[in-house]
Amino acid sequence: MRPLRWMSSPLWPPLLFAVVAVPSLVSWRLARGAAEAHRRDATQLVAEELGRRLAEAISVRTTLVDGIRRELEAGQLRNPEAFRVRALEIIRSFPGYQAINRLDPSGVIRQVVPEDTNQAAMGKNVRAADVPERAIRAAQESGGLALSEPVPLYQGGLGFVGYVPVRGHGGAPGEFLNVAFRIADLVDLAWSPRIRASYAMRLSFGQTTLYEGVGPAGEKPVSWPARGDRAAQVMVPVGSMEWELALVPLHGVPWTEQLWQDAAFATALMLALLLSVLVWVGQRRALRLAALEVRVREQQRLESLGTLAAGVAHEINNPLTGIMGYAEMLSEDAPPGGTERERAGRILREALRVKEIVRGLLTFSRRESPVMEPADPAALVQSTLVLMRTVLRKDAIDLRVETPDGLPQVRCHPQGLQQVLMNLLTNARDAVAARPEGSRVVTLSLRRLDAARPPRVRFTVEDNGVGIPAESLDRIFEPFYTTKSRERGTGLGLSVSFGIVRDHGGDLLVESEPGRGTRFHIDIPIWQGDADQPATA
Asked: What pairing do the DSSP bridges indicate for beta strands 441-449 and 398-402?
């Protein structure tokens, strides 16, 4: 009976509460603190990513200005119409420019692009204001691009401008190239709708607020959210300036305070259970924050690849234009029916193919989906091998092709799929290079996969080369990761190929045995009458 009397004692409920509720409450408090710390870390990570993307967007666009300057100095864009066409090409390919202008040595704006939205700036003398004058003097002293402090634009809104001198024949500045950026437009490039829905952002320079927004539409808040304990700040380099980017999460971790003050003796156990449930909720939120961090890191890798692809495409376009021009000149000067005209025609055709690939890189960097069309898989293989047979034969590689009759058409972007096949064949060539001549074999085969949903055609590129180490298979499609030497590979071919196949709604798979060889499988859906629809993968 003594145990019963002890359990009926008034000391039992506090003891039961202490034994059951207090550990749960302590655990919940620890989980709450961990979730808040994780939230701060995640906010800092997002802020750093936003700052990096904003700085890269500005850097890429200012770098392109130097390319226009070189073309002006070379005499390629002296004609106003040629300048207008070139400037519009860059503005359309890389959104974010407010204007690209030409100024005479005195600082008067003589040509604006685009004309329809920048007529307010035409004829203005920018050197009449202190901020542009300082930037122009800095550009003259450095000989390169100089960015101004944020200023109100002639076209309205807050922005900043850059000036770069264009040297004449004597080496002195013959004119100035001027670009203008509206800050809100550049922020929109870096600030995705998903991040807008969860964070408020403020961009400032010194005591000046350059941009402030919150919510899915980026509307300006009534007041800045008072959550300074969870705010993240990063510095964004813009030329010789540093802007401050502050990010504040709009939603925190739920917090229930002083529950025990309202609890009665008879509900102590229920209170403990409730606290346990709250711990579980906090832990689930922490897991979601961890998942957010993983997604942000993945987005960072893809954006880096897109930025690099855009830069590479721009740099290729300039020499490619020269190659095409010289090929046309050779074709016109060659006698009709001669081998010289035929070879010049081949050069021009291959240059056009490179131009298609460059256009594909720009599409990839803008995250646009290519328009799909039906194509014969065997014909795709044969057109790819027209370029690759000679290369493989030169390296003493036995190329075996297996293309059965009766295969259905596939739903694809032909140039993109040919690029993937060429990447894989090039990798196979490198993989078998270490084998002695006479034993190097690369096989390209096709077969139908009816068991897949939807049905697919499988392209397989197989080699008997060195194989891929097991520890590298999980990373083989990561951007910039390569098993080749620095001189032979950049680590971009497979990651670009993976993105192209994914845009087709297909799969790119790899099987490898070190020392025995590697097989890459490209599974592309069969065309089912939706040729004019873009990829949805």
From this structure: parallel
CB-based contact 191:213 (threshold 8 Å): yes
Q: Report how far residue 474's alpha carbon sits from residue 472's, in angstroms, rounded to the nearest whole number.
A: 6
Give dist(CA 481, CA 289) in Å, integer.
27
**What is the pTM for the complete model shown?**
0.43
Confidence band of 205 (pLDDT split at 50, 70, 90): very high
Put residue 259 in one of left, alpha, beta given phi > 0 → left and psi -120 to 50 → alpha. alpha
pLDDT band at 108 (very low <50, low <70, confident <90, very high): very high
* Residue keyed to tokens 């408020």: 200
Cα–Cα–Cα angle for 105, 110, 112, rounded to 5 degrees? 125
| Structural tokens at position 387 | 């370029």
Give one DSSP letter per residue of 8-28, joined into a string. TSTTHHHHHIIIIIHHHHHHH
Q: Hey, what are 234's tokens?
A: 């990063």
pLDDT tens-digit readout, 26-41: 555 555 566 667 777 8
Dihedrals φ, ψ of 33, to 5°?
-65, -40
As a whole number, mean pLDDT of residues 365-390 equals: 80
Tokens of 393: 């034969």
* Cβ 124 vs Cβ 109: under 8 Å: yes
CA distance 289 to 277: 19
Rounded CA gap, 424 and 381, in Å?
A: 12
Which residues, 6+ apart, have CB-to-CB distance to 532 below 8 Å?
371, 372, 373
- Burial code (b: 16+ CB inside 10 Å, e: under 16) for 77-95 equals beeeeebbebbeebbebbe
Residue 200's φ and ψ, nearest 5 degrees, are -105, 145
Which has the minimum average pLDDT: 282-286, 327-331, 342-346, 393-397? 282-286
- Other Cβ atoms less than 10 A from the Cβ of 380: the count is 23
- Give me the residue label for tokens 């993983």: 294
Q: Fill in the DSSP letter of residue 265.
A: G
Tell me phi and psi for residue 413, to 5 degrees.
Answer: -100, 105
Angle at 483 between CA 392 and CA 445, to 5 degrees: 40
Q: What tens digit of pLDDT does each residue of 36-93 get?
A: 677 778 888 888 999 999 999 999 998 898 889 888 888 888 889 999 999 999 999 8
How large is the greatest C-alpha to C-alpha distance in the chain, in angstroms?
120
Residues near 199 by Cβ (< 8 Å), separated by ≥ 6?
A: 43, 46, 214, 247, 248, 249, 250
Of the candidates 299, 448, 284, 290, the one whose C-alpha atom is nearest the C-alpha of residue 377 is 448
What is the Cα Rg of the chain in Å? 31
Amino acid (1-letter code) at residue 148: S
User: Percent of the chain, pLDDT > 90?
Assistant: 18
Contact (Cβ atoms closer than 8 angstroms) between residue 216 and residue 198: no
- 3-state class (DSSP) for residue 393: helix
What are the structure tokens assigned to 354, written together?
A: 């490179």
Of 166, 161, 159, 207, residue with least CA distance to 186: 159
Say if CB 232 and CB 47 are below 8 A apart. yes
